[in-house]
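# nightly structure sweep
# worker-07 picked up a monomer target from the shared queue
# config: single-sequence mode, recycle default, output format = structure tokens
# input follows
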Amino acid sequence: MSHISSYHADIRLQTALEQGKSVEQDPGWEILNGAVWACAEEMNLDVGHSIRDYYGRLVYCDWSLSGPAFDRGIGINVDRETGDVVFICDSYGGYERIAGEIKERVIQNYIALCVTRALSALNYDVEVQEVKHPVDGKKVLVKGVL
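# output follows
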């Protein structure tokens, strides 16, 4: 049975909304875009703007990530009124694990990019180190030296 599920992330792009601007003008939009593209590169996925459900129907979104092992893809939407970031996908048929892995990787990249930008804005020299772990996946260490 096909069912598009949504997963709310603890990311909210609201700075621009509070200033009466569109969510696309939020600084977090650019950071989220970078996190999506970094995830695509790391996991050999394609970035687009639509996913498919079990029956092949298109569902449009702000970003989508898909690949040979996950052709339906996972979508990422930003609510235009609240700025909430939501992941959507049809995980029917055993795609829960890969969808969760992609979601976690995007969130991890988003956090690392936010910390890096914040430290850079405070005039720190920033060094980012990625460590691949066979069980835990990837760990990111962000160092800031003043």
